[in-house]
Amino acid sequence: HLLPIDGIKCNSASNQIEALGIFETNIIFPHINGNLRITVEFVVMENRSSTQFILGNDYLIIQITVTKVAEVNLELERFKSEQLNEAEISLHLTDNWENELSALLYDHKEEFASDKEPLGAIIGHEVDILLNIERPHPPPLRRPAYPASPKSREALEIHVKEVLDLGAIRKVGHNEEVEITTPVIVAWHNGKYSKWLATLQL
Hints:
By secondary structure, the chain is an alpha+beta fold. It has helices spanning 74-82, 95-107, 150-166; strands at residues 10-11, 16-17, 19-29, 36-45, 184-189, 192-198. The strands form three sheets. A two-stranded antiparallel sheet has the order 1-2. It has a two-stranded antiparallel ribbon with strand order 3-4. Strand 1 and strand 2 form a beta hairpin.
């Protein structure tokens, strides 16, 4: 039912609008610190041709303070969606703690791996491995090789190529003798290749 509206003239940019009546309703804005309830009045127009819908409140009846809108860091959001999309963050963290953690990782993102500089090949943070060349040399460790599954072999070939392209390792020459063996264990996560684990035995 429309409430009567008397003595009010409404005009648009082109002509005068005839108001038929008012209906009153409540709008509730949910919030963690308590819901905000606002009583609003809508004016029904007869000859209004525009499809716009205007929502407002009477400032003489109710006054609310609109808090400052938080600025969105687009670079941080991109970092979270691209770099942290596969990260497993504890479910026990609150939203504030998770946001602080994401901001901390973003501020120090240069210290972590990237597509161009994966861990172990970060420019400026190279690690030299000093081999024991003094006598007596440790005895060579010999272990028989066994074939990997086709799935593991495919994952290893892809990863070895990535490490070769980075220059972190190189291929051994045909006549070169290297007394280093590297047992490799392929780690899988949710059915997808995650990483490989290797230990150098000198």
